[in-house]
Design a protein that fits this description.
With 236 residues, this protein is an alpha+beta fold. It is 20% helix and 38% strand. It is globular and about 60 Å long.
């Protein structure tokens, strides 16, 4: 059962790959399935008060979110302008003393130092249609309680505006990369929830290991202009 939700970016978007380092991070062009599902979880907890339901073993509400398949449609005429930036960030100051304390499990007061980091910020010109494939009507109704309440994906400040739902979604034009069916476009690695993940595996306050599934996607876009400070892409 498929439905879609359309969002419009209202600020610069930045979401680094999970493989990127803190000092150098290129941005993905679209919110990853992982970040979308985390945004739904956030709304389900803060607005719906579903923390207890989501955190129990074999929670059907958590499975509605985890098992949803997410695809993308980028309309013709959409453009992505990527701004290359160097910014100042605070980095944990590591010395021999606190390194030893950390290894021994002793509490210490960390210090911070200022350093320069590379970041990309993406201006998305055009709407983004997120296509959900769910198991049943109950899962669809549960997700639609919270999707229209989401106002950012990825970093706080990367704002998106909900536009509308559709029960007749477009055909996805962002495809899984396949060596047997090569397509022209830009290839990026995205994260999704692992099919066996539990709430503890995605809970930021849990000691459990985060479980992610890697997706290699081909975005139907091409570079048509660039300089040392920016690059522009458009839908093919």
């Amino acid at each position: 059962m498929k439905f879609s939700v359309i969002f419009r970016s209202t600020s610069l978007f930045s979401l680094k790959s999970s493989n990127a380092t803190n000092s150098g991070a290129k941005s993905l062009f679209l919110p990853s399935p992982y970040s979308i599902k985390m945004a739904i979880l956030n709304q389900a907890i803060t607005v719906g008060g579903d923390l207890e339901k989501l955190s129990i073993k074999k929670s059907k509400e958590f499975e509605y979110i985890r098992d949803a398949k997410i695809e993308y449609y980028i309309p013709k005429g959409s453009c992505f302008t990527v701004n290359n930036s160097f910014i100042k960030i605070l980095k944990l100051k590591e010395d021999k003393r606190n390194k030893k304390q950390r290894e021994e499990g002793v509490e210490f007061e960390p210090g911070f130092s200022s350093t320069v980091s590379f970041r990309e910020y993406v201006h998305i010109h055009g709407d983004v249609e997120l296509i959900f494939d769910v198991k049943n009507e109950e899962a669809k109704s549960y997700l639609k309680q919270y999707l229209h309440r989401i106002n950012y994906f990825g970093k706080k400040g990367c704002f998106f505006q909900f536009i509308n739902y559709s029960d007749e979604p477009s055909s996805a034009n962002v495809q899984l990369f396949s060596s047997e069916n090569l397509q022209i476009g830009l290839i990026e690695e995205y994260d999704d929830f692992d099919t066996k993940a539990t709430f503890e595996n995605v809970d930021n306050f849990s000691s459990k290991t985060t479980k992610r599934e890697k997706l290699i996607l081909t975005l139907p876009i091409e570079n048509f202009s660039s300089s040392k400070s920016f690059s522009c892409y458009r839908v093919i």
